[in-house]
Amino acid sequence: MSETTQQTGRLIGEPGGGPGPQSSTIGILRGWLGIFARQREATILVVTVVLLLYFGIHDTTSFVSQANAINLFSELAAPIIIIAIGEVMLLICGEIDLSAGFIYCFAPFIMFYLNVYYGVPALLAIILALLSGLVVGFVNGFITVTLGVPSFITTLGTGFILAGLALTLSHAEPKDIPPATVTIGNYLGTDGWAQFIWAVILVAIFHVVLTRTRWGLYTVSTGGNQLGAREAGINVGRIKYGNFMITGVLSALVGLQVAFYTNTIDPLAGQYLPMFYSVTAAVIGGTAMLGGSGTILGAFLGAIALATLIDGFDIEGINANSVQIVFGAAILIAMVANVQLARVRERGRIR
Amino acid sequence: MTAQSQEPGMTEPGGDVLRAEHIAKRFGAVTALVDVNLRLARGEVLGLLGDNGAGKSTLIKIICGFQQPDSGRLVVNGQEVVLKSVDQARALGIDVVYQDLALINQLTVYHNMFLKRERIRWPLLNNRSMRDAARRYLDEMGINIPSVEVPVASLSGGQRQAIAVARSVYSNAKILLLDEPLAAMGAKEAAIILDLVRDLKQRGDVSVIMIAHNYGQVLEICDRVNLLQHGQITLDKPAKDTSVQELNDIVVAEYRRAMEQRQRSA
Ligand SMILES: Nc1ncnc2c1ncn2[C@@H]1O[C@H](COP(=O)(O)OP(=O)(O)O)[C@@H](O)[C@H]1O
Ligand SMILES: [Mg+2]
Q1: In angstroms, what CA-CA distances link B86 with A145, A238, A241?
Q2: Residue B39 is assigned to a structural domain of this protein
């Protein structure tokens, strides 16, 4: 029984692998190999690199340029990445947030009305707009955890409410970015690489949170074995509340960034698409819909792969409709691969 | 009902680390516990016996703070306590191995062993320290697993059970609740766990309640046995004053009575 377990064991080792008694060079080497051996991230890494190379070689002049890089990484990938961070945390603990794209739509209006109508200083208005995401996350947590409604339904409902609120508040009219907020807006999203830099920083932070802190351990426990986690004394409700709130804030952040980047506050921004892209990125990056496992790095790579497809097809002039066919196929292939790999591992475990 | 039990209140109170008094618990239409009185002396190993569905696990979950009784009280070290959570019970030195083990399949062996007791080098987990300690504990216990870095999903039933037991034993609990810790174990693994309980008994300051179905093993290791039937403790005897035969007879007689009753009402 012990020989077969050895192979599966390497899959979950932490990044950077613990060298223990070996020398540090071997430790570092093992760490790198460890990252690669975690199949699900390795697969999506290869896929992403291949996609980038393909379009890089095929459409060298238009694809390999500063402007297109900003478009791909900052405008297309970053919003997916940042929301995906939240969705990964939620999916791991056994929940999902369908309202993310509506928080994204709603939050910039909070900033706008607070600053323009109530004279709240720009920085405070932005912070309160972010906090509005936190509040929506809390409400999602309350309805899901405390009232016991499945999060799929909860967030469907709160999403509709937010969409309606944004439309009613704005009388379905786009608003201009308040001049006072423009300086801060530069740091958030207007400036070329700003969105992607935020995305990378947040990925780094939440990768550490997920793999190296109690919060991450309890998030995995909650989704992996909810009853067992409760028996062990983990407050699974708190974990879920927290991850809903994290997703809320991240979605609000993306909403603000996109508003600054596009230089308008659009009552039809966001909607379902950013959430779907993020969940797709999470899933093709190796996060299980059933809870208990997932990686932020995988979702990061998954989002870049998606953005590369969107961008590359756009450059090649393939129309948007056929892009959807590719997305659908990508999701299915990723899912089939995940399930089949899990089966192979399972088989390897049988004594 | 053959109520041979001594009234728990009648023993000298100073020696008991734990008393459960008049504990009742229902789940909707199911009455799991009617009126349970149980005591546990310092350094004692108490065997808790009873049919499947008798309410043994429910009683354990009440003592470890996971579930709350409908009525009755718990007295720990002479003080009445109301346990609202597992953490509260843990703070009083009560730890448990659940029947379902409460292991997280996706986490490594060492993360499971330190779940809710993580070693932290703020703000991060001190994985190295937990890994080394877990390896040492399992070595000390003579439990053989390929590596503490594998997810527990990849282990056998007996190995998983051993890890759940190791986790509780090394928590420094003073009152240890073991809900069928031998269920999935082969002869060798069972011997390891039984030896472990014996070691704890030698130390004298750890008290154990152990649920098991093998009367031979129970009588071999326990100082005293309690039998739970119909939501009550119906037998409370020192292990040396009873036998596998007697315990079998009681349980079989109980089964016969139930069958007759069923036939009569049919
Ligand atoms: N959470 C629960 N919800 C509903 N019924 C339960 C629950 N836990 C236990 N029961 C019922 O209580 C009774 C006692 O169960 P349990 O304590 O697990 O028995 P034992 O451990 O002695 O086999 C059983 O009839 C069981 O179905
Ligand atoms: Mg039981």
Answers
A1: 19, 15, 20
A2: yes
For residue B55, the ligand 1 atom closest to its alpha carbon is 17
Q: Is B77 in the same domain as B179?
A: yes
Say whether both B69 and B179 belong to one domain: yes
Q: What is the distance in angstroms between the Cα of B225 and the nearest Cα belonging to chain A?
A: 26
Strands, sheet with B71-76, edge to edge from the N-terminal-most edge strand: B30-41, B16-27, B71-76, B79-81
Question: What pLDDT, in 10s, does the model give residues A153-173?
Answer: 999 999 999 999 999 999 999
| Claim to verify: residue B237 and residue B169 sit in the same structural domain | no
- pLDDT, tens digit (0-9, with 9 covering 90-100), for A9-57: 333 333 333 334 446 777 776 666 555 555 567 778 888 999 899 999 9
Rg (CA), chain A: 21
Residue B165 sits in the same domain as residue B217: no
Domain assignment of residue B161, given as a range:
94-173
Q: Has residue B197 been placed in a domain?
A: no
Please report where in the chains the tokens 């877990």 appear, as a residue.
B134
What is the ipTM metric for this complex?
0.91
- Whether B229 and B252 map to the same domain: the answer is yes
Q: Note whether B1 and B7 are within 8 A (CB).
A: no
Q: Which residue ranges form the domains of chain A, and what is each CATH number?
A: 41-343 (1.10.3470)
- Whether the CB of B99 is below 8 Å from some CB of chain A: the reply is no
The CA distance from A32 to the nearest CA of chain B, in Å, is 17
Coil vs helix vs strand at B239: helix
The reply to whether residue B128 touches residue A6, judged by beta carbons under 8 angstroms, is no
